[in-house]
């Protein structure tokens, strides 16, 4: 493909991404892969270049743009070479006309920028939520030691965390194949450390998904104790068992929950857990580096709905923790509605609990908990709070 044809391809893909964002359709990643699956003539360099252009455009438009072309023109505003590729030749984008619509820039829609500002995230910090995510791995101490790590890694704040250049083909390394390392953002690793899971304990991961954090808990427990992974999403939860096997993690019990009736499936665990981790569903504002189009899809109503679910999950966990046990609340969000305010409201509802200090080698205090962020810590954005049942 010529450089101009790549730009035209990116514009066509962006049109699909925009339509999907409006209709809550497929994620951008899948749209890009499907587009290339139907166009086998494109080589790997073309794919990489087009994908890069698509994501540059998605990152540079705060709101859903009117069209793929308007989004690409936003990028071209600051890139003379890109502008020159709008040359109207075969397979290329048409020459830029005077007064053509150009999408607005910015980090996020206005309503969301206001919510971020009220949560202590300024405009510059919001822009940094859209940078390129690094490649972090966790050394899986159940399967390997530092001697097994691929070369070129740099130690990060998480106890077993290492950072590699983003283009590293980590999945092709022997360490990855053997299960000695897991790809996991350093911030995510740090939130698991707050659980302080110990060998021999009973630990419940209430929103385990496919087990990203569950596997870190299993390693911290050194495969001794009882680890229970729950989720309402059958497909996600079913991906945990093969991952656990590869990681050499202890048999992990899985419990599929019925949304709204979670406690019915958890009766056997009443007051039984030394620790419960709630890695709650949330707006994901802390993960825009990986998923920048998420900000085009989010609505204020959804934020409120997530906050309501988080409060409900916190109240469910109250019944599961043994006296003296701990409850760790995590969201990958920088909005106080899903963080500091949520933690405060929890304590107001449950005076028989107390907030504990979140002791981490990274992050900054936020209300009763701690915030990790791309701008201060180079991690994905998280809020984490820890409570103890008195
Ligand atoms: C942030 S994700 C969890 C990610 C996972 N812990 C990890 O580290 O990979 C939130 C999870 O909560 C699950 N979820 C949503 N509603 C739930 C509910 N009512 N009870 C339990 N899990 C729920 C979602 O299916 C999703 O997998």
TrEMBL record:
Biological process terms in GO annotation: methylation
A GO molecular function held by the record: methyltransferase activity
Active site location: 332
Protein family membership: Belongs to the class I-like SAM-binding methyltransferase superfamily. RsmB/NOP family.
Protein name: RsmB/NOP family class I SAM-dependent RNA methyltransferase
Keywords, alphabetical: Methyltransferase, RNA-binding, S-adenosyl-L-methionine, Transferase
TM ranges: none
Pfam entry (one): Methyltr_RsmB-F
UniProt: S-adenosyl-L-methionine binding residues: 231, 258, 279
Keyword Methyltransferase: yes
Record domain SAM-dependent MTase RsmB/NOP-type: where: 102-390
């Amino acid at each position: 493909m010529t450089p101009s044809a790549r730009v035209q391809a990116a514009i066509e893909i962006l049109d699909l991404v925009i339509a999907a964002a409006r209709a809550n359709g497929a994620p951008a990643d899948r749209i890009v892969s499907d587009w290339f699956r139907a166009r086998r003539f494109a080589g790997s360099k073309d794919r990489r270049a087009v994908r890069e252009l698509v994501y540059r455009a998605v990152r540079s438009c705060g709101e859903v743009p009117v069209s793929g072309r308007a989004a690409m023109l936003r990028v071209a505003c600051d890139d003379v070479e890109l502008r020159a590729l709008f040359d109207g030749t075969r397979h290329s984008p048409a020459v830029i006309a005077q007064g053509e619509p150009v999408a607005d820039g910015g980090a996020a829609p206005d309503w969301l920028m206001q919510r971020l500002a009220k949560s202590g995230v300024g405009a510059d910090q919001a822009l940094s939520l859209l940078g390129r995510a690094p490649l972090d791995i966790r050394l899986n101490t159940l399967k390997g030691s530092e001697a097994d790590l691929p070369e070129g890694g740099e130690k990060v704040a998480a106890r077993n965390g290492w950072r590699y250049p983003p283009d590293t083909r980590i999945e092709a390394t022997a360490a990855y194949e053997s299960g000695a390392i897991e790809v996991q953002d350093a911030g995510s690793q740090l939130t698991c450390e707050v659980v302080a899971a110990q060998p021999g304990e009973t630990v419940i991961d209430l929103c385990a998904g496919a087990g990203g954090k569950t596997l870190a808990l299993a390693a911290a427990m050194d495969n001794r104790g009882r680890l229970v992974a729950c989720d309402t999403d059958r497909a996600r939860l079913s991906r945990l068992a093969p991952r656990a096997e590869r990681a050499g993690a202890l048999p992990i019990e899985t419990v599929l929950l019925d949304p709204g009736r979670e406690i019915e499936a958890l009766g056997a665990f009443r007051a039984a857990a030394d620790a419960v981790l709630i890695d709650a569903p949330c707006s994901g504002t802390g993960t825009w580096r990986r998923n920048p189009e998420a900000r085009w899809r989010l609505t204020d109503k959804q934020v409120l709905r997530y906050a309501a679910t988080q409060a409900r999950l916190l109240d469910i966990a109250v019944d599961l923790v043994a006296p003296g046990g701990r409850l760790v609340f995590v969201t990958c969000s920088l909005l106080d509605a899903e963080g500091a305010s949520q933690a405060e409201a929890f304590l107001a509802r449950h005076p028989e609990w107390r907030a504990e200090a979140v002791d981490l080698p990274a992050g900054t205090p936020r209300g009763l908990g701690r915030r990790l962020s791309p701008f201060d810590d180079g991690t994905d954005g998280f809020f984490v709070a820890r409570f103890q049942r008195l």
